[in-house]
Amino acid sequence: MGKAQKYVLLGDATYPLQDWILKPYQEDENLTQRQLQFNYRLKRAHSVIENAFLRLKARWQILLKCDDCSLELLPTLVLACCILHNVCEAHDNPFNEEWLEGTEPTELPKPCQPAPAAMEDNRAEQVRELMCQYFESCGES
């Protein structure tokens, strides 16, 4: 789109819009087709992330019991599981779908209300608009 962009995190409606957090447009009858497409793509990307974490927890079930370890150890534990997962994939040690039986997707508590508008960054709307343009230009995939 002619403008260099930083990496962004995906958030839902409860997060404040920041130039580093993409969140969907508020659902209402006034959304344009482009905005609806943006929300759809964001939701699809978010589901891929949820699935990836579900598979990671299924392969390395120690991640289901992380409340037993210290907060200082947690990032190292998650990183080790990610590296081991990549090693398994590189050596054709496939993911066993039966592992998913022991892991239920858990909903972590989230705020119920959207973040106050005062927390939102005005520059972030430009980033979201650029992403809308990009999705529109590349068509449905």
From TrEMBL:
One of its GO terms (molecular function) is metal ion binding. Keywords: Hydrolase, Metal-binding, Nuclease, Nucleus. Residues 5-86 form the DDE Tnp4 domain. InterPro entries: HARBI1-like, HARBI1_dom. One of its GO terms (cellular component) is nucleus. Its cofactor is a divalent metal cation. Transmembrane segments: none annotated. It is found in: Nucleus. Signal peptide: none annotated. It holds the Pfam family DDE_Tnp_4. Belongs to the HARBI1 family. This is ALP1 protein. It comes from Ptilonorhynchus violaceus (Satin bowerbird). The gene is Alp1.
